[in-house]
Amino acid sequence: MSIETLKNRLPDYAKDLKLNLSSLVSETSLTEQQRAGTFVASAIASRNPNVTEAIVAEFGAQLSPDAMNAAKAAAAIMAMNNIYYRFVHLASAPDYKILPAKLRMNVIGKPGVDKANFELWSIAVSAINGCGMCIDSHEKVLREAGISAEAIQAAVRIAAVVHAVAVTLESEEQVAQQAAA
């Protein structure tokens, strides 16, 4: 499966997603590795096997084995952190904000790729998972590393479109299954 296959599977009402997917594949404010890793991490975070398969097929060759593992690690660690830190942020009791997380997060310190790339992939996943506390934290690190607002925005645009494609394809499958039942 490829990006073209994904676009062809999208219904006519999702034409904007097709157009956005096409333009983001060649987004110029990101390096090839940043763009590819953002697509992969976002696909994994979107939890749709067809989208993940197509995106890994499309972008996997652009990533070294270490970079592929780092993109997967960003999706994995943010799946945990986004839940925990969203809870900390949303809970009314102030105690949680001062308690240590007591969760292992070693991969953040040694992701196996340039730290800024890992942070970029982490912010994309955090956007999908809706964790404002994590978004702020990763955005701060990215800006300190010299990553531009345009590059950060591009990563989040990729996350938004990949997630929307996953949701649309999943809902189309569900509607088709209900119609067949």
Task: Describe the protein's architecture and organization.
The protein has a single domain (3-180), classed as AhpD-like, CATH 1.20.1290.10. The protein contains 10 helices and no strands. The chain has helices at residues 3-9, 15-24, 32-46, 49-59, 65-90, 95-98, 106-109, 115-129, 132-144, 149-180. Helix 8 (115-129) crosses helix 10. The model has no long low-confidence stretch (mean pLDDT 94).
Task: Break the fold down into its secondary structure elements and pairings.
Elements: H1 3-9, H2 15-24, H3 32-46, H4 49-59, H5 65-90, H6 95-98, H7 106-109, H8 115-129, H9 132-144, H10 149-180
Helix pairs in contact: 2-10, 3-4, 3-5, 3-8, 3-10, 5-8, 8-9, 8-10
CATH H-level superfamily title: AhpD-like
Strand content: under 5%
Report the sheet with the most strands, covering strand number, pairing sense and barrel closure. none
Give the class from helix and strand content and strand pairing: mainly alpha
Q: What characteristic shape results from the CA principal axes?
A: globular
For this structure, what is the CATH class? Mainly Alpha
Low-confidence segments = none
Q: Compute the number of helices.
A: 10
In sequence order, what are the helices and strands, one letter per element? Answer: HHHHHHHHHH
Mean pLDDT: 94
The gyration radius over C-alpha positions equals 17 Å
* Count of domains: 1
Secondary structure: number of strands: 0
CATH topology: AhpD-like
